[in-house]
Amino acid sequence: MKAYSANDIRNIAILGHGGKGKTTLCEAMLYTAGATDRLGKVADGNTVLDFDAEEKRRKTSVSSAMATFEWNGRKMNIIDAPGFFDFEGGVAEAVRAGGSAVIVTSAGSGVDVGAEKAFKAATNRGIAKFFVVTGVDAEDKSFYSTFDALKAEYGTPLCPILIPLMNGNKVECFVNFIKNKAFKYSDGKATEVPMPEDSLIEEMHSAFLEAVAMGEDELMEKFFAGETFTHDEIVKGLKAGIASGDVYPILACSGLTLQAVEQVMDVLSKLTPAAGDVAGEWGVDESNNEIEVKCDENGSLAAICFKTVADPFVGKMSFIKVISGKITPETQAYISRTGETEKMGKIISVNGAKQTDIPYIGAGDIGVVTKLSGVRTGDTLSNPKKPVTLMGVNFPRPCLSMAVSVRKKGEEEKVAQGLNRLIEEDPTLTFYINKETREQILSGLGEQHLDVVVTKLKTKFGVEVDLTVPRVAYRETIRKKVEVQGRHKKQSGGHGQFGDVWIRFEPCDSEELIFEEEVFGGSVPKNFFPAVEKGLRESVAKGAIAGYPMVNIKATLYDGSYHPVDSSEMAFKTAASIAFKNAVPLADPAILEPVGTLKAYMPDENLGDIMGDVTKRRGRVIGMGAADEPKMQELVAEVPMAEMGNFSTILRSVTAGKGYFTFEFTRYEEAPKAVADKVIADYKASLQED
Ligand SMILES: Nc1nc2c(ncn2[C@@H]2O[C@H](COP(=O)(O)OP(=O)(O)O)[C@@H](O)[C@H]2O)c(=O)[nH]1
Ligand SMILES: [Mg+2]
Asked: Which of 284, 490, 617, 654 has CB atoms 3.0–4.6 Å from 497's, for a disulfide?
């Protein structure tokens, strides 16, 4: 492998809406650079980047994938992110590793949500942004409608560098304002043609110059004085503006037909900030002091694991970006999360599924270390003598939960193992066992996301599962004070059994059962109190009307009787549970349901619809108003958990993917009669099934 210094490395996250041509563009770049000898096509399922079986089947990216090529003597590391929101975890990984973001959209598109989200993610991370409008070969789609839409949204910083000259609906040639040259394409081959004289091209050229001028004050003065820029000034102005985030170049091409792809590569290799120039990262040292970690080949090791893959052949692969220092197979790295030190193993570079051994990962570069058992996505690896913790990966939180049921009995353990492996690769998935409902709960970002998990369990781990709506953890309670007797008497052979208690049951505020005693004169001997309490606790846990734990209840043992021979702990325990059973029907029992606080965010125009939906879910709106982001509203409501089932799906479809939400358990509340009746009826039906 050729050695590259940080100044010759570019790390680029390829982002944007699903289906706009990201993977196709990446394949075109790899092919153009000679990194592949055949142009992969998404439709044919033979691309370098969508190599996963699931991606081939769905013909779309479901996880981030990495590839590398050399262009103009620079090492270009590209991370192709998935576009569909269910697979947004891949976007977080790509943005964490990228020193700049290429936001891909296709000719004819407006400002789609994928582009908007990518723009936001790149801005939050403070990395340079480029727009690439691909698909300009399609004659019914216009580059300029997309340009206008982006211009309306992002304004002057949008800098047209590489644009098409149209002849009717067809691209006549591409104009590159940095080179000040025009190129015509046939069969993916460029021929230089004279710079066209065209009013639209001139208009674009002045937009280009205005954006260039934004990079440096000197240039701005020159621009207003009407002076022309030299080539060097243009490059300098652009570099400065792009690095500071004030200028976003926009480039046109066709990934599928290889038009202007090498021009895009020229621009990216020259104008994306070098890994060595990207502003430093912020981290904390051992004493929790903030420190800046600069990209420095001779510095102390600081690296971040931004992605993990469980490869069937290689085993665990940790994708690592080195900010400072170097990782070799001999490196002992300190893992801040665990406080352990781990020796690195084999180091490889990946191109999609293809792997090549490499001797080290230098500062500014990205590579894979295999079989690091103690390293997870988000971990910082640093010099044990100078530990540091960098920012992790900003993953979206799971929002859709389903219960997993195993088709074949006895495979539960295998399913859990498979899920744990998949979670290692995808931190936007969570899995746990709900002790109360005894269900295995899988949570992810949406229906497709969970669907991929089900398919992977089958294809990779050979186990079949079904997903169902999780059971809701209801509670039971009483609303009235009652005093009842529980008497247990049995004569069987020699010893009989005798226990007799009088217990007062009443509502209280404690979730857990409160047990007290007021026994006078030893009507129930002291040594049986614990048995009475135990009988009550067991009964309360099982519930009395629908099989759910009973809460907010206080029980006071105040009287009873005993037999000197036949009374036992067992007999008093049984007497207590009889008392409980007798009490509940008299004490005005009720079903409580869990209610959570919903915070939903959506574009202004969707507020009405979402509010309507929340109301239909028996939600109580407790607040609304402008969110922190522009054009977004925040809606806060209390909603019964039982009603939240498909909220994530509805919110996404109503807001075209722009909406998102959090939902957290708040408290138990009395369920309305209709709900309570149904819970009780379901319980009775389940008893009959058993
Ligand atoms: N005509 C045309 N179609 C394209 C171009 N790029 C991608 N496509 C098609 O658009 C679809 C989605 O492309 P893909 O690269 O998978 O998009 P991604 O989801 O953004 O990675 C595929 O059917 C491609 O063949 C292009 O430049 N021109
Ligand atoms: Mg893709």
From this structure: 490
